């Protein structure tokens, strides 16, 4: 069954305009049809369409169940957007499919792209949430300067890792550095990597330099591999 997204379904039994248009015009849903709706906060609603409309489809809530995320630790992925926006769109789709709690686009000294259109990223995240049968939508931050992000993260209890390419800096394999069951913050830099001053700031904020293996990875690939590594370790050591 195709799922719809309505963040305010608990207080207003109506689909948002974009979802209403998809339901009525594309899927041709009629009054009496049963649909599933997620609120992005962990709840799945089974509803009956009362009045289909391309802007505001009215529904009746028949039942509600909790649909919590399947992973327990909180996972934050902070990454400097790549020059080509489509690579970031691909990344957020895959991260949501795998499972994250927060996505933070970063502005670094060597960033090829200084801003990321949050509205576009949010739409892709919603689509990926529905497609992967999840009910929790990750937090998506506005583009944040690296130093501001580090300042906010310095006091968190999460295990903090920064992917870094320079062999001159001591690095650990992420699969060996991470302790399963712990919250994790993953920090991935731009195509030109972090500047020496930035990586020192990461260390002062409590981040550990890691590598994802022997292969040299693109920014978006490194972020995806790091996230999946955390999930695999948590599943293997339940």
Describe what is shown at a glance.
The chain is of the alpha/beta class. The protein has helices at about 15-25, 85-100, 120-130, 145-155, 175, 195-205, 220-235; strands at about 5, 35-40, 45-50, 60-65, 75-80, 100-105, 140, 145, 160-165, 170-175, 185-190, 210. It has 7 helices and 12 strands.
Taken in chain order, the helices and strands follow as EHEEEEHEHEEHEEHEHEH
Number of helices: 7
Indicate the overall shape: elongated
Q: Which percent bin holds the helix content?
A: 25-40%
Q: What's the count of strands?
A: 12
Whole-number mean pLDDT: 92
> Main beta sheet: strand number and arrangement?
8 strands, parallel
Low-confidence stretches: none
- What amount of the residues lies in strands? 15-25%
- Derived from helix and strand composition plus strand pairing, the structural class reads alpha/beta
Measured on Cα atoms, how large is the radius of gyration? 20 Å
Spatial separation of the terminal alpha carbons:
31 Å
